[in-house]
Amino acid sequence: MEHTNSKPKGLPENAYRELKEGEEYKPIMSPTKSYPEVTPWSVFMGIVMTVIFSAAAAYLGLKVGQVFEAAIPIAIIAVGLSGALKRKNALGENVIIQSIGASSGAIVAGAIFTLPALYILQAKYPELTVDFAKVFMSSLLGGVLGILFLIPFRKYFVSDMHGKYPFPEATATTQVLVSGESGGSGAKVLLVSGLIGGIYDFIVSTFGYWSEVFTSRVLPYGDIIADKAKVVFKLNVGAAVLGLGYIIGLKYSFIISCGSMLVWFVIVPLMNLLFGGEVIDLMGTGIATTISEMSPEQIFREYGRHIGIGGIATAGVIGIIRSAGIIKSAFGLAAKELKGGSDSSASTVRTQKDLPMKIVAIGIIVTLIITFLFFYFGVVDNLLHAVIAILVVGVIAFLFTTVAANAIAIAGTNPVSGMTLMTLILASVVMVAAGLKGTAGMTAALIIGGVVCTALAVAGAFITDLKVGYWLGSTPIKQQSWKFLGTLVAAATVGGVMIILNKTYGFVGENALVAPQANAMAAVIEPLMSGGGAPWLLYGIGAIISIALAFFGVPALAFSLGMFIPLELNLPLVVGGAIAWYVSTRSKEEKLNTARKERGTLIASGFIAGGALMGVVSALIRFAGFNLSVKEWMESAPAEYLALLMYVIIIVYIAWDSLRAKEEN
Fold it and tell me: Tens digits of per-residue pLDDT, 481-497?
């Protein structure tokens, strides 16, 4: 292969749209040339980023209750360092830095959503044991499974479905890497919009000069309608969420929001109308409040989102059935290689080289065996229970891997907490039926949940890395191979940080860490292991909705995501999607419309990147104990009206600046 030192240009014109018949996508880094990718610098910086962002994400996720996605901040740092050190031809290296480092956010999400629940329950049941090995092994094994299960689907998601999925986070990350390396007007647009979006979101999250969410409660009679009819309108006015909607586009944004509106504007009010005076405790968690006494938000949390979980799970199964051909071909290729058949990777073009299916298949088998031994000797100490545990992990992690990848590809959001909650419930029901109850059952179910949660979080994050690599022209096998290193480092870091945090702050009692997701998991698992039930009725409703949508050709996963994700994060997606439609349809000239749409994509990517980076800074400031906002003002009606005004201003800005694009750009 020829080695190149040419400076890359921007992304090709057909990067984001569907390809015409016979058309080929040619990435920035040519498939026929060789580029620096895996170097001592990229590996070292990838490890450093993994350690730093794993520790930061674990601290902030448990203290503040927010897990930030590390991919974009790491991409910004990588570009900044390569520029400051004047490293030539650094695009391939920066992709590897970002890919290794991004393991941090995924591993952290998988760990802190479930495993702190062990400490929370330990306060009530002292015989329940927690140690570094449990946290480290569940995170590591889950992460490895997530990578291995996703690799056979790489070509389908990133290449076969080119232009059909918006990949919002991958788009923003790619724009950061391209603009930093190629410079030019694109870099300037990204920098300016990044500053605007970052400062805007920083002002909201740090100083609270205006509210982050506008609600209908501030309107005349809005509070009464919310209280009596359980109808409330909520809109997040953040720049990053608006940018996300722009990149997702109007089609998927509208479908997602339709799911949200069904739950919030139909199901929640209907529950109040039909069952207002009743106490409905579907899971045995001790709910003593009638439906009419609950706020719309509480009804959504306790009931509505479970319909979304059922819909997501069913949409995932439908997706598996529809992609049976892809799965069959992947297994067939692996079987052929295992029998000693020819490995075609030697003749495969550089940008399409994956880890050989033989290695992937053996890796999955070995990882599942190690996971089984971990369960048998380290968790349950019973052969039948260990077999059940590994079956639950293997089946659910495999089935939901494509769901996680699909969700990230469509909305940039991974509903991992919902899928993990369902995993915990299924695991608990099966374990109880097999005779494993009490604290031993709680431990087993939470470790199973931790492995599955991490696998799904890593799979979702990894498809973003691979799509970034596809657009830029990285070598997939290098991304895949070195992702294991990032997973190992992140798992060790998270395990250590969690133990330190527990000893320093604790997860129970006064001034304890918030850990909201883990507290929710603990609240669910305890009654289940003590004979409680599961919200099968709600899951069934979600399943029926998904099946009906699939029958009529509506993307069921996108709709179900809307039912699960809070209303205030869904409605802004429609606003962003509407802006994208508006700027790309004003002219009769197709090239001008395309130029405007792409300039808007740069601006939206800047909003996302700026918001992500400043979100980390804001969270660190809060974690350090500096509260610079005035809560009374933030929650007041004038602050919400001001929020709406500021939101209109950034909407006008993104539309105006996008329409400034010239056809020649």
Answer: 999 999 999 999 888 88
